[in-house]
Amino acid sequence: MYSLLVLLLLFPTIHSKNYEFFHLLGYAVNVTYTDWMTSTDPTACVKKCALYDGCLGILMDRYERTCYIIDKFMAVFEAPEECAVYALKKPKIKHVGRTLNEGEQLLYNLMYASNGTCPDEWYVDKKQCTYYYKKPPGLKDFCLSYSSFTGARWDGSQCVLKKRF
Asked: How far is the C-alpha of 85 from the C-alpha of 95, rounded, in Å?
């Protein structure tokens, strides 16, 4: 009974309609967000997130009394003091050729949430996945923000990575 109680405290969840979000206690993230709202209530933010196709989580900034609706996870880092992120629960996506640690597996599940050949919102080319939107400022930095295990790299004009299959 005691071990079950500890497990529930380490990974609390929030439910909204057909979605379940779990609290990423002890992890910091590199993300992009599609929207934000003034709130310190994670449940209200999760409800707003559920309104967006492609929402993968929320980031709570309690100092600014703001939550951000996450549409891309690019990196997940162990950070014992962090408790600001809730991620959409997704099935495990297998990474061929490598065993992933807990943080890497979480990121991989969120990057490939639709279980496609390329990460969600990336383009499938003949040989690779590409991310390109008319060279917006910061695209190179965006690309280099991905965790190194993903293999994402800047090729001089766009962000590329290997296709899953």
From this structure: 24
Residue located via tokens 């599940």: 109
Half-sphere exposure of 38 (CA within 13 A, CB side): 0
Domain boundaries, the chain: 2-115, 121-165
Q: CA-to-CA distance for 129 and 151, rounded, in angstroms?
A: 11
Beta strands 123-124 and 128-131, pairing class = antiparallel
Per-residue pLDDT tens over the stretch 118-134: 998 899 988 899 987 65
To the question of pTM greater than 0.90 for the whole model, the response is no
Which distant-in-sequence residues (6+ apart) come within 8 Å of 68 by Cβ?
A: 31, 33, 35, 36, 58, 59, 61
